[in-house]
Amino acid sequence: MFRLLITLIFLCFVSVKSYAGSCPILIQKIDQILSESKQISKEQFSEIKQLRDQGEKAHNSGEHKESEDLLNQALRLLES
C-alpha cells in the first residue's frame, strides 16, 4: 500500500513537471511563426504579442494552466 501511494505521488509530480514544460515550447512556436509571417497586421501582431507576453509571465510565476490558455489563444489567432 505504501509503495502504491509513493508511486501515485511520483506520477503526480512527473505529470505536473511535463505539463509545465509545454509553455516554453508554445512560446518558441509563437515566436517562430511571428518572425516568419509577413501577413499579420500591426493590430494582430500587437494582440498576439500581448497574449504571448502574458503567457510567459504566467509561466514564470507558476500559473501554467493560465499560461497555456493564453499561449494557445495566441496560436489560434496566428493560425486563423
What does this entry look like structurally?
This protein is mainly α. It has one domain (about 20-80). The chain contains four helices and no strands. The longest helix has 19 residues, at about 1-20. The termini are far apart. The model is unreliable at about 15-20 (pLDDT under 50).
Average residue pLDDT: 81
What form results from the Cα inertia axes?
elongated
What share of residues is helical? over 70%
Main beta-sheet strand count, sense and barrel state? none
What order do the helices and strands follow? HHHH
Helix-strand makeup class: mainly alpha
**Beta-strand percent range:** under 5%
Number of domains: 1
SS field, number of helical segments: 4
The tally of strands reads 0
The poorly predicted ranges are: 15-19
Give the C-alpha Rg.
Answer: 16 Å
Concise summary:
This protein has helices at residues 2-20, 22-36, 42-60, 64-79.
Protein topology:
Blueprint lengths: L1 H19 L1 H15 L5 H19 L3 H16 L1
Helix pairs in contact: 2-3, 2-4, 3-4
